Amino acid sequence: MNISQISEEIVKLGKELTDKGLVNGTGGNLSVRMENVVISTPSGWSLGELKSASLSITNLEGITLYGPKPTKELPMHLAIYHARPDINAVVHTHSIYAVTYSCTATVDSLIPIYIPSIAAKVGNVKLIPFVLPGSKDLGELVGKEIRQYNGLLLENHGVISAGKTLSKAGIGAYEIEDNLKIEFLSNHTARRIPNQLVKEIIETYGG
Ligand SMILES: [Zn+2]
């Protein structure tokens, strides 16, 4: 896949996430790593209105090589690529059920797993403490925590879904949102899948 094909994929996913209500306004950002460059959504743009030419291309240190200024949240994307050579795409949303959960649940806990598909496609997801969005410190924390998880929830902020491809990272973002939607639609009474079974699902279907 070349840069222009990846750019088309980012534009398409940005529109889809907007249409499905996972991102609003200028919230959320996407990136794909291709060898030594990172193609990311630009700062201050609605993900629903992107064009291929409006994407930003940086190196892995965040220096802009082409296009507009990248998303302010690029440091956490770059930290993920440095920490995980197997990850080539990152989707970050402020989807409302996941964010609501991140404002109420205990920090440093794993989110409850209600549906097998999140275990199979993402695995466990950890809620990590609040750090200023866009900061180098948030990048460092995310870079450390992503070593063990493909999905993270940022306290009072949003979702990170990391995947081998953009399509997989996007699916992860939907899985996390749907799983946490069940938390609220069930008024916190949903039965969770026991940890041992979650482990078996991850071992059997994960990766
Ligand atoms: Zn954010």
Structure description:
The chain has 207 residues and is α+β, with helices and mostly antiparallel strands. It has one domain (3-205): Class II aldolase/adducin N-terminal domain (L-fuculose-1-phosphate Aldolase), CATH 3.40.225.10. 40% of the residues lie in helices and 17% in strands. It contains seven helices and eight strands, in the order αββββαβααβαββαα. It has helices at residues 3-19, 74-83, 96-104, 116-121, 136-145, 166-185, 195-205, and strands at 29-34, 37-40, 56-59, 64-66, 89-93, 125-128, 151-154, 158-163. It has an eight-stranded mixed beta sheet with strand order 4-3-2-1-5-8-7-6, sandwiched between helices. Helix 5 (136-145) links the parallel strand 6 (125-128) and strand 7 (151-154). Helix 2 (74-83) packs parallel to helix 5 (136-145) and helix 3 (96-104) packs across helix 6. The chain is globular. It starts with a helix and ends with a helix. The model has no long low-confidence stretch (mean pLDDT 97).
